[in-house]
Structure prediction request, 712 residues.
Amino acid sequence: MRLPRLLLIICAAIGLTSPAWADDGYDLWLRYRPLPTAVRAQLDSRATAIVAGDRPSPMLAAALGELHRGLEGLLGHPIGSGEGSGAILIGTPRSLPVLATLNLPLGKLGGEGYVIRSLALGGKPITVIAANDDRGLLYGSFALLRLVQTGTPLDQVDIVSAPKLTLRVLNHWDNLNGHIERGYAGDSLWDWWKLPDYEDPRYTDYARANASIGINGTVLNNVNAVAASLTPDYIAKAKALADVFRPWGIKVYLSARFTAPIEIGGLTTADPLDPAVAAWWKAKADEIYRSIPDFGGFLVKANSEGQPGPQDYNRTHADGANVLADAVRPHGGIVMYRAFVYAAQDSHQVDRTKQAYDNFKPLDGKFADNVLVQVKNGPLDFQPREPVSALIGAMPKTPLMLEVQITKEYLGQATHAVYMGALFEEVLKWDTFTKGRGTTVAKVLESQKISGIAGVANSGNDRDWSGSTFNQADWYAFGRLAWDPQASSERIAAEWAAMTFTPDPAFVRAVVAMMMTSREAVVNYMTPLGLAHIMGTGHHHGPAPWVHELARAEWNPVYYHQADAIGIGVDRTASGTNAISQYAPPIAKLLANPKTTPENLLLWFHHVPWDYRMKSGRILWDELALHYQTGVDQVVAMQRQWQALKPYVDEERFAKTEAFLTIQLHEAEWWRDACLAYFQTFSKRPLPAGVPAPAHPLSYYQALDFPFAPGH
Ligand code: GCW
Prediction:
């Protein structure tokens, strides 16, 4: 809830700063509540004025507006009404010529980088935000606010920062009817029906939130696209959004349906090599650019899960991508072409986890220069833990865009507190060995001609945007890691926690500890030791490892665990599907042997006997059961940690998190009980000490049904 400023000032004056207020989470990490008095005095002396050049552009105006809003909120009074003589100078060497005399290291910062430096000018304490263009000033403004929010004094700041990836993009799986595929935070933010005539002020707040973490693009509609989003009516709606987002440095992109030339273009084919089809896409791109001159380009899901694509015309994915790329190239647009493909027919002959690589690797070098192949982090589908996709680093002539999922389709959806930053960091630090040791995913991405990362958004129209306060951290971490893929997710968590709740170090330390175990907790209670995709059918809520009767082999959880009387796990070595052969030789070699395979991926790569000796000395069955139990114990610990933080947190957000942790605990227990009851029918072994018997017989869990689970 946003309190009127006067009330805010009164509250601050009588010491009623947080946590006494209710807070519904709408302000995300941009809360700007008054700082503790001592910190405020220091800030006050350096922020008596904000000085910019004349006639600011809309983007600089946005940055200035945010600086005022933020600093005044943090100070608890208008800029200029405090004591002191310090000022904030913000500009480019052109807009504010004095900056050109300061010898600032702007040379290598590009358009989006910035310098923030404290110095003295004419005897006055000055904080400079400088950049080569207004985008850098926008990001620099948010960075300055972040410093203040996290309790950094401004007197010795010297920061030089530029994004390491060019495209930092959200993918909204939002349908035109407002429903979000895999959305757990309400309906779509985009009110397509009322657009373009009504622009919800929330669109601006969405853009502010993204700009604050450096996100510079958003794909408005679901990759499972309908052609209607490319009709004139919907282009006008997208234009309205683009106009709102532009001052915040955010370009819009659209998901394109491959058969749009037929469905809305009146053609009889969508064959990418047909000249009429190419002409249609060109004309369509021209039309879009007339409305949205800085339109980013297209995202495409083709020949995947029922979506049409070039293979329907016996053409390759490169043919499919290039026809769209040619259409947007004259305008500077790009195509993000997804590699998430697996055979349209029953594919149990070919390991599903191999198919993206099999389809795309041979096409390296065949894509137009404005195409990025967008690859999910793992070879399967956003599981709690997967190995990294073998495609990353394997297509040296093709820029790859990493796709991660911020929304937690397979990780407890809205209610489980699972810090995705830890997962993203694990992915980015994975060593692909594709150019020798140390070729991490982050480095693969950073070294490309065009570089980018996409995150499947977790925002919807819930008041708190993401369905829970802790889910907001996942959005935040995505943006921060997109800016610097080698950053530490733990430090990002600390930043987020300080901004979202309070910079009190005791609080931050405790909450970060809780966040950092949360990812391993979900792996433990859902899919330990490399298990995957044993969630409920369709909605992916809850455990259902027993499902085996779906039409296609790879839709069934049994395909992913292959439990039998001997053991559990999938043999992906040469004696099995040989998926390991897709990795660089040093990795393939490690993965060939269960003893040298990381235990947290053991069952992903090997079918392992129930009595296999693990590093702990325990047999696999006992280890598996204990991992499930550990996951439950970790949630209990998270509950305890949260309770201890009550004095720091406003009632509303405290209570919601508390209730969600209770849901998480119940569901963790459910996962443990259902999975162990089921796997025990194969292992035929007793549960080890410390693991309770399941609360119900297996048949109880198998009978559970969730026809109205969200996001499906
Ligand atoms: O497996 C999945 C999800 C689908 C999603 C698909 C994809 C948008 O369950 O909901 O569709 O991945 O990434 O295309």
